[in-house]
Design goal:
Helices cover about 65% and strands about 5% of the residues. With about 110 residues, it is mainly alpha-helical.
């Protein structure tokens, strides 16, 4: 109890007996006992509430990282699918700054 040995308790009791006297010592002991019981019951109630309270489950970091890796793999697969489906690029026209002339990619440029 609080790191106090038996001999120290006896010394405290003797000092309390001398200071308070034999008439008031039982009253003070009862009051201290009630106070101690109230504090102990309050602490026990708090412990019960804390223990019974469900804690939110937070997955470990490794689990979160594996989910991120899976999502990255799925994204890479979808990107590759899209590239396969749209592999043909649109033909672009080259524009000349000369009036009214358009040059196709397949035709050589006129100089």
């Amino acid at each position: 109890m609080f790191g106090i040995g038996f001999t120290e308790l006896i010394v405290i009791f003797i000092v309390a007996l001398l200071v308070l006297g034999p008439k008031r010592l039982p009253e003070v002991a009862k009051t201290l006992g009630k106070f101690y019981r109230e504090i102990k019951s309050t602490v026990d109630e708090v412990k019960e509430v804390v223990i019974e309270e469900p804690k939110p489950h937070t997955p470990p970091v490794e689990e979160k990282l594996s989910k991120i890796d899976d999502l990255e793999d799925e994204l890479d697969k979808e990107i590759k699918k899209e590239k396969k489906n749209h592999h043909a690029e649109p033909k672009r026209e080259k524009i000349s700054f000369k009036k009214g002339e358009k040059v196709n990619e397949s035709e050589p440029e006129k100089s």
